[in-house]
Amino acid sequence: MSKPGTESAPAPSAGQTHAMSDGNTPLVVIRALRKSYRRGAQVVPVLEDISFDIGQGEFLGLMGPSGSGKTTLLNLIAGIDKPDSGSIEVDGIDITRLDEEALAAWRARHVGFIFQFYNLMPVLTALENVELPLTLTGLSRRERRERAALALSMVGLADRMDHYPGQLSGGQQQRVAIARAIITDPTLIVADEPTGDLDRHSGEEILDLLERLNQELGKTIVMVTHDPKAAERAHRLRHLDKGVLTDDPA
Amino acid sequence: MLLKLIVKNAFRHRLRTGLTLLGVTVAVLAFGLLQTVVGAWFAAADATSRTRLVTRNAISLVFPLPLSYLQKIRAVPGVMQVSHSNWFGGVYVSERNFFPQFAVDAQSYFRLYPEFLVEPGEMQAFLRDRQGAVVGRRLAQRFGWRLGDTVSLRGTIWPGTWRFTIRGIYRGAEAGTDEGLFFFHWRYLNETAQRNYPRRANTVGVFILGIDDASRAAAISSAVDALFRNSLAETRTETEKAFQLSFVSMTEAILLAIQAVSYVVIVIILAVMANTMAMTARERLAEYATLKALGFGPGFVRLLVYGESLAIALLGGALGMLLSFPAAEAFGAQLASLFPVFSIRPETLGLQALAALLVGLIAALVPAEKGARVNIVAGLRSVA
User: What's the DSSP call for residue A140?
Assistant: First the structure.
C-alpha cells in the first residue's frame, strides 16, 4: 500500500474560514457547502455553509450530537451524496461536478469505506469480500487474491480468509471491512462510527488499526464518531451542531 | 465474482428459493403437458400425407357413399389409387376401452398407408382370413393381445357381436404414426350388412385417394366432386390434413381453453417469481448501496438481480422440461384412448425454455431497476 499522491489543492477563496491540522497541502478542500433534505413540502437544512480543509495524511474526527449533520458531511466528502451548493475538491478534483458514472469510478479509485455495520457481503468469504473492489480494476484473479490475502494479513486475519462474515465476530468483520477499504490503496478513508457496533475491546483494536493505517501508511482518514474515546485517536476534531461547524477551526 | 455472487445469492434463502424453484418447475411442467395435449390433438393431422385426399358425403360424415363411386373416382386424372373405409364404432368389453376401428379394403388401404408396417407373413394371414384383423402395436400392448387371439366387439352402428382374429400387429414407420388403430375387412362388414341390413350394404364411409402430385390436390378434389354434383350423395373431397383438422375444429373451444390455461399458469408463476425477486431486492438494498458506494455501477446491480432471477427461472425451467418426459409418458399411458400419440415435441421444449426465460427476465424487471437506482445514502441507512 503506497502513500497517496501529494498534488496541491486549489487555494481557498478569500474570506472563508478553513484550516489544516499541520500546514500540509490540503487533500480535501470544502467550500460553502450546503445540504438540505425535503420532508414533504418542508425543506430541512442539514448543513449550512460548511468550509474547511483536510490535510494530506490527516486523521480527522467529526463529532456532534445525533442529527448534527456529521454523517451527511462524511457522505458528501466520500462522494455518495450530492450537496445543494458549494464545492468539495479531493486531490484537486471537484467531485460535486462529476456525474454518477464518473463519481462511481472516482469512489472506486479514491475512497475506502468503513461502515458502522461493516456492510460485508454475507455470501462471500472474508477473502472474497476484500477482493471485491479489485474486480473493478484490470488485475488478474491471481493478483487480486494475493493482494486481498496481504490486506487481510495486515489486519491480522490471515487465518480467517475462508470464513464467511457470519462466522466472524463483530471486531473481525470490521477488520475485514478495513482490509476492503485499503485494498485499492485509496486517497481517502472514510469511517462512519467504525466502533459504534463493537464492544470496548474490539473497538480499541479497530482504532489501533486505523491509527496504524494513518501513521504507517500515511492514509488520510475522516472518522465520524460520538465516542470520546474514539475521538481521542484523531489528530484533529471538528464539531458539528445543527449543520454548522461550532468549534474553532485552528 | 459476478457469477459467484449470483449463484450464492440465488440460494441464500434456501426455503424461499426452493419453493420458488418448485413453483417454476411445476408451472413449466404443466405448461409443457398442456401444450403437449394441444399437440396431441393435432397429431392425426400432423401425420397425414400431402398425396392423400379424402372423399366423404358432402352433407355429413354420418352419411355413407355408394361403393359404386369407386370406379368413377379411380378414372379421374391424377388419381393413382383409391381405397375406402368405414368407421365401425364397436365396443370392446366396456365403453371405457375406446379405440378407433375401421373396416377397410385391406389390399388397397395398406398400399395407401405405407406408414403402417405389417410383416409380410402377417399380412398374408390377414388377407386370407375374412374375420382377420390388424391392430396397432400400442393397442395390442394395451389389451395384451397376441397373434391368433380372438377379439369380440359389440357393434353400435352395426349391431351384433363381431368376432375377429388378430392376424397382424403393425408398427408405425414414424414417431407420429398412430399405433392404436384396429383394421378389419370391409368385405366382412359388407357381407354381414347384406344379410342383416341390406339397405346399408355396398356403402362406404370415405374414399381415400392416392394422387400423383400434391400441388394438384385442389384441382383433383374439384374434379371428383364435380362427378357427383346433383346426385343423391354429393361428395366433398379435401386433403387428408383438412379432413383431420375438421375433427379438431369441432373441439376448437376446448383447445383454446387448454391453450389459455397453459399461459395462465405461466402468468401465475411470473407473479410468484416477481414477488420473490421484489422481496429479495428489498432485503438487499443495503448491499446494493454498498456495492454502489464501492464504485460498482447500476449495471452491475442490474446484472446481479437479473442473474439471480434467471438462475432460478432457468433452473426451474430445466427441471420442468426434464420432468416433462416421464410425466408425458405416464399421462399418455393413462389417456391412450384419447391421445394415441402423446409425446413432448421439440417445439414444446422450445416454448418451455422461452417461458422460463421470459419469467426470469420479466420478474427481475422492476426489482433490478429498483436496485440499480437505489440512493446510496438511503440504501446504507436501511441496514442501520
Answer: -
